[in-house]
## 1
Amino acid sequence: MATIQYRLRSKANKNVSIKIRLSINRDNVFELNTGFTINPKDWSEATSLPKQNNPENKLLSNNLKKLETFVLDNLNTDLGRSILIDGLWLETKINDCFERIEKTDTGLIVNYIQDIIDNSSTRKVKIKGGYKLGLSKSRENSFISTKSIISEYETKTKKKIHFIDINENLVDKLTNWLIKTKKYAINTASKHIANIKTISIEAEKKGIQVNAYAKQINIFSESDEDRFIQTLSFEELETIRTADIKSEAYNNARKWLLIGCEIGQRGGDLMNITKEDIRYKGGNMYLDIIQQKTKKAVTIGIIAPHVIDIIENSFPYKISTQKLNLYIKEVCKIAKIETLTEGKIFDAKTGRKELKFYEKHKLITSHSFRRSFATNYYKKIPTAVLIGITGHSKESLFLTYINQREDKDSNADLFMKFYEDLNKDKKTEMKLIKNGTDN
């Protein structure tokens, strides 16, 4: 059982440091300064605490008891999370207990990120045509996650990271730790490294000393062959549409699935659609939305008869994305969407996504809707039109999204097709050209 004791550094007739000694077992004993001092004449050897002979000593005694409780509580929690317990861990807990964070040291990367988090609601964010106030919740959470990762890495390496420390060697070691030890997906690890690069560039503009390498970090990403994109083909969607589903909840989820695969929007935008977003012009149905992530205004023409019927006659009720992802797997299971498909599913035992072959219905999520739309209509509808609906900023991002490489021939084929359509009503004039003979 872990124990904590306090002792004085010396018995000199002056204020001396009070040390905390954490003993977990015979091989794990750590001793550090608490940051408090006391005159030895005011120290009780019997209780290993200040004598209760004046208000100052009573307050000091209460602080030491508070620290003991705080350290032991956090010790139990962190041991359960397999966090390394060492001298740096103890130092961090002492500072956390009394909120002694080096907030003035902006050169520390975790402090800089904390400042971003603290001021997220008023932080200026560059957008097309100017700036807006406030980070999105997802962006704020991304910084919170990166700060947590860096703090854990600092505990592991027993060293605080300043912007000036971010050299190639550190980035390589951090990347290796994220992927090999923490077993993060490549793209997840990449996002943390990208956050470090972004704030390093910003920090230098504010006059903070930054390692030159930090601004030139190469951001990696998952290769196309490592990306596993789950989509539903037109044939599979028809199977789902005609499946015999009794449950009201599953039927409702099926409607969202069928709509989602025809409008090409993110799950959050899909679930915010109401009948008030629908309008008609010239007998045609249009859906107008503003995408949450990009703030782009998008208009989608809806022409699939089964989707028009759902919207007009049995509009689905809103549910949480979590429930939607759960229900659509059951919908696809009932529809026998069960082809063995390679993909990743979260494993509670390992805490990571495991790459295996699964029955396809187990891999379908609300994110499959937008990808299905983009994949199904690629090369059937001009890419520029599809990009205008999905909201991708450029064709290269769209092609990466559906795991396709640019097909230059398809552009030429489309041009020729449109040219033929433009000229199909024109009669070709044939002229006889004499070749200088009567034959």
Note: Confidence is low (pLDDT under 50) at residues 427-433.
## 2
Amino acid sequence: MAHRLASKRLRSLDAFRGFTVAAMIIVNTPGSEEHAFAPLLHASWNGLTPTDCIFPFFIFIVGISITLSYGKLLATGRTKRELIGKTLKRAALIFLIGVLLGLFPDFDFTEIRWPGVLQRIALVFLACALLFLYTGWRQQAVIGAVVLLAYWVALLFVPVPGVGTGVMEPGRNLVAWIDSLLIPGSMWQGTWDPEGILSTFPSVVTGISGMLVGKLLSVASMPHERKVSWLYLGGLLAFLLGSMWGWVFPLNKNLWTSSYVLYTSGLAAMIFASLFFVIEVMGRQKWAKIGVVFGSNAITAYVIGGILPALLAGLNTWYVSHFIEGGNWPQVASLFWAVGICALCYVFVYLLYRQKIFIKI
């Protein structure tokens, strides 16, 4: 449903969301994955690249948005029952769009993949919204800590049939075993999926970390400058703790390890603090316009970015043969294609933004 937005939005959050979605589109749509720059590819297993930070950044932003938007809705008299209905409908719609996007353009239902990026966002949104409605921020912090510790213990000490305990190799760990038992249809890696069932639990904690930031932002009596200081301090502590935890529980996006949650949430908090300071405190907003435009219709931009490559498959084949494989700078040409796809997405959402149309999914 499209709505015309009248209320004031937090432009720094829109900008962060928008830049994150733009980065998602660019890393997802290279002209040729074989010729992409290394930072624009995911780490093969342990460790991470800048690309591995994009998805948790978006989930972190989802958490902030829940605290701010649901807090305002409750303050205007909306009941929890009404918000639960709204939450269930929105989560189901995002999940369905994710499934359909994975089926596009062939719609071969024999190859349906139930997990996915939008599907995980839908589940995290649902879990975090319910936590916001029925718990306080202290309880949320405790729940997050317990989940991260329990996940660590489970992956280290719960035995995997035929493999043993403590094995974290691709396809031979507890997460993959549970996926193979419970997920129907196709999976991204055949027998396991990076957006599988067990790894969704720590991804919810990424959302909780954003909710805690949202709680900080909602303190009306606190000056913006102090909020920025707390964001930097909390982000730095989470980043350092995640780095140290990574010594014994490796940073791993595919498993969404507990160390990865803290590391990426810490980075997200510090990056958002920078945007918040420049845009909200200093009032420098013009340079962030691209991010704000993307962020105002983020899911719409992401869906368009998922559809365009299939629609332009023939053009991509020609482009690869003439400019990537047949050129002198194949990685640059591959990136140029991705930026072009992102620019097309921007044109579409900019037209919506100009008309003050914000598609609420």
Note: The first helix runs from residue 11 to 28.
